[in-house]
Amino acid sequence: MRNVLVTGASRGLGLAIARRLARDGFRVHAIARSLSEPLAELAAENGDGVVRFHAYDLALVDGFPELVRGLRSEFGPLYGLVNNAGIGTPGLLATMSQTQIEALIRLNTLSPILLTKVVARSMMAQGSGRIVNMSSIVASTGFRALSVYAATKASLIGFTRSLSRELGSVGVTVNAVAPGFVDTELTDGLSGDEKAQIVRRSALRRLAEPDDVAAAVSYLLSDQARNVTGTVLTVDAGATA
To answer: Is 149 among the residues known to form the active site?
Structure first.
């Protein structure tokens, strides 16, 4: 059974991704600061260690080598990494505190880059692996009061495309998924009118769902996507069409 790390897997998109990957035959290592009730239920439903929770604060980047070394030692090679964890703190740049800005950049950009660095080394040694970075359509479209968040998500696209060039020759693919506005905790800050406006502008006249995003991630980890790398797969119900 192939081991896949999914960060931020306790809720929202991360939980949906963990559920889909478990269903598709992967062993999911769910990384989050604390165990949520839905994640505990998912682990119990699957049984036999298919979904395993590992408590870790991804802001503590210095501990990544030890974290990854421990997982490899206990469970074997790491086939996949899904950099999903992130925060979506809204705010106008002019009034956001430096603390808020630094927290966004640390968790949304620095943390996935440094975790990928550690995981990629083991993938290079084994000559195979899949890395999926979670970006957002906001990285290309922009959205009021999300300028810093958009900057962090745009950085992951550049990271994805360049890293795919670095790792392709050793059999590792690197891709990104860019969800549109999905009905999760990250969109709770939007008003009803804002959500309605997004729906009206979407080609399919609806919001994408977490399961749609999870399916895209599962595809990029599958054997069917062995020749797909350096791409950004958009899942937004046609909002950017």
So the answer is: yes
